[in-house]
Amino acid sequence: MTFLWAFLVGGVICLIGQFLLDVVKLTPAHTMSSLVVAGAVLDGVGLYDPLIKFAGAGATVPITSFGNALVHGAMAEAEKSGLVGVITGIFEVTSAGISSAIVFGFLVALVFRPKG
Amino acid sequence: MADQKKKKLTLTQQEYQELAKRHEPARPLARNFLRAFLVGGVICLIGQGIQEMFIHFFDFTEKTAGNPTVAVLIFLSALLTGLGWYDRIAQWAGAGTSVPVTGFANSITSAALEHRSEGFVLGVGGNMFKLAGSVIVFGVASAFVIGLIKTLIKMGG
């Protein structure tokens, strides 16, 4: 069942992205930034976690979960060490995504040549 | 914003923009939406599959399986970008490929590849985040504000 919801919810988030591109006529960078901020705000008001529970990868794979994970890291660390934690913890959860994107991106640039 | 920009243009430029707007081909909205929905959904479905695999075969819990799943998706996306396949799918799928985390990896990898000829430090290193940078900057800035507000509320209450 989670598979169906993952497909549907993930699809709808991408559909919203396409809507922002085609109808609101944002640039791709504006669209992605808006979605990330939306994810952070949704987590701020406590709505993103229920969505992840419900849709699994449908909520964790789209870029909105990046904003959600940033807030999560900041909050987890803030609970332990107070206000400073907001700064020190912000990348804690997203480290996997950012690090692997840098490492694999760099490796690919070493191995491959750009295709016309 | 758009109106402000318009005021700075000369009359001929305004006329040209009107003309260009009239001849801009209508975007096939229904088709684009359907493709974005289908491809985005399938990528999340693949993500769910990888996540289940990590839970069942490698003893991850539902919470800890998220990170390796994202790493695998990013690896696949970087590889497909290097082979030149991801961009071909992206042409077809629009936001369906750019909204999932694979699109984030694709923007980093393609920027790295594109600037390879300028050298590894100035080209690859300096340009890698050219497209993905705005996502990180706005994500972190908004997360900081939200984290700050939530922490202050918790401290006060």
UniProtKB/TrEMBL annotation, chain A:
InterPro entries (UniProt xref): Spore_V_AE, SpoVA
Q: Which residues form the signal peptide?
A: none
Q: Which UniProt keywords apply?
A: Membrane, Transmembrane, Transmembrane helix
Q: Repeat: present as a keyword of the record?
A: no
Parts of the chain that traverse the membrane: 83-112
The protein's matches in NCBIfam families, at most eight in alphabetical order, are given as:
spore_V_AE (TIGR02839)
Protein name as it appears in the record: Stage V sporulation protein AE
TrEMBL record, chain B:
Q: Which UniProt keywords apply?
A: Membrane, Transmembrane, Transmembrane helix
* Positions in coiled-coil regions: none
Q: Does the keyword Metal-binding apply?
A: no
Asked if the Swiss-Prot or TrEMBL record annotates the protein with the keyword Membrane, the reply is yes
One Pfam match = SpoVAC_SpoVAEB
Question: What are the TM regions of this chain, as residue ranges?
Answer: 32-50, 70-86, 133-153
What's this protein's name? Answer: Stage V sporulation protein AC
This protein's gene is called spoVAC
